[in-house]
Amino acid sequence: MSTVAAILKHKGYNVSTVDPTARVSEVATLLADRGIGAALVMDKAEQMLGIVSERDIVRALAANGSSTLEMTAGQLMTRAVHVAHPETTVDQAMQMMTAGRFRHLPVIDHDTLIGLISIGDVVKARIMQQDTVVESLTAYVSGSA
Predict the structure, then answer these.
(1) What gap in Å lies between CA 94 and CA 134, rounded to an integer?
(2) 17: left (phi over 0), alpha (psi -120 to 50) or beta
(3) What is the CATH number of the domain that holds 14?
(4) In whole angstroms, what is the distance from residue 73 CA to residue 30 CA?
(5) Using one digit for the tens of pLDDT, what is the confidence trace for 32-67?
(6) What span, in angstroms and rounded, lies between the C-alpha atoms of 122 and 126?
(7) What angle do CA 111, 43, 57 make, to 5 degrees?
(8) What is the domain count for the chain?
(9) Can you give the pTM of this predicted structure?
(10) Strand residues in the chain grouped as ranges (E)
(11) For a disulfide at 139, which of 22, 47, 67, 145, Cβ 3.0-4.6 Å?
């Protein structure tokens, strides 16, 4: 069974973060420039305060209009952030994300942030798992295993 650690080993450990005082307009620019869907909000002590996603920004724009762009990441962020650990399985991560209806999952190891995975990363890992199973079954049935 594949784990979150395997996903991070493949995709890397880089995490985009913002200060809680960063304006939403700056966060939106960061997300667009890096082609990512979320950034973690971290304080000066490198403690995770929350997460700001494209979805958060769009919902705030719908509710508040253009004044959203002047809000800060700290005002807009989702504070109750679910996390995974390196040993979390791909299936467990998928279940957490589906049940919670969120697309990004920080990965914590011994109280230290080590990465961030997206639902796209999880789906890709799950497809790779299925491909391996299909290849193994095909080899078994054809007698080449």
Answers:
(1) 20
(2) beta
(3) 3.10.580.10
(4) 12
(5) 999 999 999 999 999 999 999 999 999 999 999 999
(6) 6
(7) 105
(8) 1
(9) 0.86
(10) 17-18, 38-42, 48-53, 104-109, 112-118
(11) 145
